[in-house]
Design goal:
This protein is an all-alpha fold. It contains 13 helices and two strands, in the order ααααααββααααααα. It has a single domain, classed as ABC transporter involved in vitamin B12 uptake, BtuC, CATH 1.10.3470.
């Protein structure tokens, strides 16, 4: 049986990333023609910072997509909102406390992912329904714990994710790059990554080869939840405050970014680098729409139409390959 990931290193799969790269270049040029400040160091640093948050959410979504079985995680935004509100309630005055709080929010997200995975694999609930149900459960839990009131004062350590390390590069941006690089290495170079790709590509064949399909699928949701939990913690550090449902938009944006980056909704084929490029495309597009003073409602409509076109194109491509 051919490893699905072997195809991702050839020129065919490199070409999958080219549309995203071209779109990024076009958006940068278009933004620069509208205003020279668009490509200033300060603005590009802000764009990369914002894109880094979406990169985390897209990485989480990508893992679920890669696992196949029509996998999708609609609870990513809810998990991010939960940890953005609950995380700062813990003491984060020292590096040790910050590390403990970080592990705690990751564990919280992982538990949500575990429940998603068990519901899908053990109870045979469709992923779309299960993760949507979990979103409501998570929002209810968050409201119960926080009473809808975020922590009044955020730790300076948490706010430090906004710190500039190099021109145009901030701490959160570095975290995003490290996360994508680590995920890509795990996917390409480890047995766990190869097993995930095989299960996503052909679960029946994977089962015949002795792989524990259900366990791998559940693990994908656990990883997705854990990454989303961390992303929410970084989100509140970036924003400086938290409100209920503040990360709702990241759910569908992560789906769009993953597909723009070339990840197959059928599973088994994808790239975390592509997901990062897809995230950058969406953030650049949003920045340009804001610069054109297009109302927020209209921006949501444009993003929705873009997502619909991408999904239709991706579905058609899958049918042609089959």
């Amino acid at each position: 049986m051919e490893w699905p990931l072997k195809r991702t290193v050839n020129t065919k799969n490199i070409r999958v990333l080219l549309p995203s790269i071209v779109v990024v270049a076009v958006l940068l040029i278009f933004g620069a023609t509208l205003s020279g400040r668009f490509i200033s160091v300060r603005n590009l640093g802000s764009i990369l910072m914002t894109a880094s948050l979406l990169v985390f959410a897209t990485t989480a979504q990508n893992i679920v997509f890669l696992s196949g079985n029509n996998g999708i995680d609609l609870s990513i935004g809810a998990v991010m909102s939960m940890t953005a509100l609950v995380g700062p309630m813990m003491p984060i005055g020292t590096p040790v406390e910050f590390a403990f709080a970080t592990l705690t929010v990751i564990a919280m997200g992982a538990v949500c992912g575990l429940l998603n995975g068990l519901g899908i694999r053990v109870l045979s609930i469709p992923p779309l329904i299960m993760t949507l149900i979990m979103s409501n459960v998570i929002y209810g839990f968050t409201l119960f714990v926080t009473k809808g009131r975020p922590a009044m004062e955020l730790s300076k350590i948490l706010l430090g994710v906004n710190k500039t390390v190099f021109p145009m590069i901030r701490v959160l941006t570095i975290c995003g790059v490290v996360a994508v690089a680590a995920a890509e290495i795990i996917l390409r170079k480890t047995r766990a990554g190869r097993k995930l790709a095989i299960v996503g590509d052909n679960p029946n064949a994977a089962g015949l080869c002795g792989l524990r399909v259900s366990l791998i699928s559940v693990a994908a949701y656990v990883c997705s939840g854990g990454i989303a939990g961390f992303a929410g913690f970084m989100l509140v550090g970036y924003a400086g405050s938290a409100i209920m449902r503040m990360a709702d938009s990241y759910t569908l944006l992560s789906v769009a970014a993953a597909i723009i980056g070339g990840t197959s909704v059928a599973g088994g084929r994808g790239s975390f680098v592509g997901g990062a490029l897809g995230s950058l495309v969406l953030i650049l597009l949003t920045s340009i729409l804001q610069m054109l003073n297009i109302p927020q409602g209209a921006r949501f409509v444009i993003q929705g139409v873009l997502l619909a076109v991408i999904l239709l194109t991706n579905t058609r491509s899958e049918k042609l390959r089959q």
